Structures are given as C-alpha cells and as structure tokens.
Amino acid sequence: MRLTLLGTGDARQVPVYGCECPACGLARSDESLRRRPCSALIECGDQRWLIDSGLPDLTERFPPRSFNGIFQTHYHADHAQGLLHLRWGQGLVIPVHGPADPEGLSDLYKHPGILDFSRPFAEFETRQFGELSVTALPLQHSKLTLGYLLEGEGRRIAYLTDTVGLPPATLAWLQREPLDVLVLDCSMPPQPQAPRNHNDLTLALQSIEETGAQRGVLTHVGHTLDAWLLEHRCELPRHVTVGWDGRII
Ligand SMILES: [Zn+2]
Ligand SMILES: [Zn+2]
Ligand SMILES: [Zn+2]
C-alpha cells in the first residue's frame, strides 16, 4: 500500500498570496516548499483512488481511467474545487464516495456531469475495493467531514483532515489495532487558546499520542506553522514529521 501526499497546504496554501513572512518567501523561491490543496493518492493492489480533489489541474495529472475514483473527506472548496473541472469530461463515470452532505459544493449535485455521488459513506462504514479496505470515520469540523482508515497489504494508515481533535468514537475505532501511520490535520503552531475547526500542533501531537500511531505525519499545514517550524523543527517528537507535497508514505 502506498500513499502519496499530492498537496499538504491549508485553504490559503503556501505561499499565501501577498504574504511576506519568511515561510512564504522561501516557498516563493523554492518550488519544493510550496503547499498545494490538501489531497493524496492511495494505491493498493490494482486500486488507485484520490483522497480529495482540491487540485486545480486534476485533468492534466490524471488521464481518463488512470484512477478508480475519489474518496472525498468533505465539500469545502480547497478539498473539492477540482471536481468543478473534472465533471465536464465525457465517456467515463467517476465515483465520488464522501459524506452525505446535503449541500456539497456549488452546483455539483445539480450538474454532476461524469461524477457519481450516489453512494455516500455512512459513518464507520467499511467498503472493500479489491485488496483495499476503507472505513469512513467522522471528524470534528465546520462541515460534515470524514477521515479514512485505509487497510491493505498488511498495513494500516489513517488519513484524517480536516479536524479539531478526534470524536471519542473515532479515537476508539483507531485504538482497536496498531496504526502504522496517522496523517493528521495540523494547520497551526501551538495556540494560546483552544483552536476551532483545525488542529494546532499541541492538539495534533495529543491525537497522535492517543491513537498510539507508530508514525505521525502532519498535513493541511498553514504558513504560520511553516514559519514557526523554521525555528522549532527540532522540538517535534522523533516519530512525527511534517508532510510535503509529493512525499510517498
Ligand atoms: Zn481544508
Ligand atoms: Zn506567509
Ligand atoms: Zn475544511
């Protein structure tokens, strides 16, 4: 099983348009430090699925029939805007399995084009796709959001964004068996007050600890966290790393 982080940025991405902070400055001069909309590609056996669809160039990156479909975490624009282009394709159908969000994004449900939204995941539902098993786990966010537990080829990876902390039932589900890797929302450096909608580093480390994951990988990283890490990277625990676009897990 192979998970590729396609994008690791928050809704603003890095560099933030117009921002002159050190992290945005560095990302402007070094392509490898850029952070695109948060998304990933999971490959297991003959299965190849996108997790989220916020990249604006999906049609160029993924030719027709080069992937099976999309596991959608939620319908905020930074996670779903690529669907607005993808839908106008022809000659194929792309299943989009996500939460049963009555609104979706923009007019996607009204004009789905080649996208098939007909089989949303129920919370804690497990589906089998060839050798890949996928379980939808509810998260805590400002919109109905699912994380995904990916199991196959003897590995167990959880991909959980966007969230602030973890609902107790989701945490209990993850604690049933050892987790190899937890890819987790960490949008901000430690905040003086409890954050809303997204993890700061304090909450993210706490969740990694509670799940007992062998490795933690931070994603949905905002520029303030990147700037903070320029001075504090050595303070991260050894089993926790910061994700980068293109990184393979
Ligand atoms: Zn987001
Ligand atoms: Zn900045
Ligand atoms: Zn969101």
What labels describe this entry?
single chain; 249 residues; alpha/beta; 6-stranded mixed sheet; 13 strands; 25% strand; binds zinc ion
Secondary structure layout:
Blueprint: E1 2-7, H1 22-29, E2 39-44, E3 47-51, H2 58-61, E4 69-71, H3 77-80, H4 83-86, E5 94-97, E6 115-116, E7 126-129, E8 132-138, E9 146-152, E10 155-160, H5 168-174, E11 181-185, H6 201-211, E12 215-219, H7 223-232, E13 240-242
Parallel strand pairs: 3-4, 4-5, 5-6, 10-11, 11-12, 12-13
Antiparallel strand pairs: 1-2, 2-3, 7-8, 8-9, 9-10
Bound molecules: zinc ion (ZN) (3 copies).
GO molecular function, one term: phosphoribosyl 1,2-cyclic phosphate phosphodiesterase activity
Pfam families: Lactamase_B_2
EC number: 3.1.4.55
Describe the structure.
- With 249 residues, the chain is α/β, with parallel strands linked by helices.
- It has seven helices and 13 strands.
- A seven-stranded mixed β-sheet has the order 7-8-9-10-11-12-13, covered by helices on one side. It has a six-stranded mixed β-sheet with strand order 1-2-3-4-5-6, with no helix packed on it.
- The model has no long low-confidence stretch (mean pLDDT 97).
- One zinc ion binds at residues 10-11, 38, 76, 78-79, 162, 220.
- One zinc ion binds at residues 16, 19, 21, 23-24, 223.
